Amino acid sequence: NEGDEVIIPTPCYPNNIQNIDLIGAKSVYVELKAENEYQLDIKEKLVSVKDGEKLDSMENKFEEKISIIVPVYNAGKYIEETISMVRAQTYENWELLLVDDCSKDDSCERIEQFIEQYSENDKIRLIKKPVNEGAAKARNTGITEAKGRYIAFLDADDVWMKDKLLKELAFMKE
Questions:
Q1: How many CA atoms lie within 13 A of 71 on its CB side?
Q2: Which helix (H) or strand (E) element contains residue 115?
Q3: Would you state the pLDDT for residue 125?
Q4: Which residue, among 18, 87, 84, has the nearest Cα to 46 in the 3D structure?
Q5: According to DSSP H, which parts of 16-78 are helical?
Q6: Where in the chain does DSSP place strands (E)?
Q7: What is the pLDDT of residues 54-77, one digit of tens each?
Q8: Which CA distances in Å does 154 have to 55, 68, 85?
């Protein structure tokens, strides 16, 4: 409920309690409950908890989240396919950051319509840059906004297999 305090256990430094802003609540106190209970460091992250969300799901929610960053410039004719391809991933703990670099076509409108129609739990976000600066700076903007532990870059006209994220994460953990 709005204004409530929520306790979220994470592995901060021993006996260290941090105050992190929470949308819809006054504050969240993050503290160590048990050694290595979670392998998560959210010192500089904004944590949001939705009504009814179980706190025991927080470990997987942040520890293995992959932020997928897509620079978008005049990608209207294929951006919906790109978004659908990400939504079809077998690995589901991701966020999709679509960084529009001042497109002159209908890219933003298509993305906004897609988000309005299909976005689940705010997993897909559109970030509009005020000035066209190119794909590299659009990726940097996405990195700044990312909340995941891992970053994956995807060009708006590229294609991924459905198990790409799952396989790459498994490879990194080997």
A1: 15
A2: helix 107-118
A3: 95
A4: 18
A5: 58-63
A6: 6-9, 18-22, 25-31, 66-72, 94-100, 124-128, 150-153
A7: 333 444 445 689 999 999 999 999
A8: 31, 7, 11
Q: At which residue do the structure tokens 């933003």 appear? A: 108
Q: Token pair 């590299």 is at which residue?
A: 136
- Nearest to residue 22, comparing CAs of 50, 54, 55? 50
pTM equals: 0.65
Retrieve residue 120's tokens. Answer: 């689940």
Give Cα separations from 147 to 76, 93, 107, 124, 143 (angstroms). Answer: 26, 11, 24, 12, 9
User: 71, 155 in Cβ contact below 8 A?
Assistant: yes
> What are φ and ψ of residue 145, in 5° steps?
-90, -10
CA torsion angle 32 35 37 39 (round to 10): 90
Residue from 167, 165, 171 nearest 66 by CA: 165
Give the sign of the dihedral formed by CA 161, CA 163, CA 165, CA 167: negative
Rounded CA gap, 173 and 165, in Å? 12
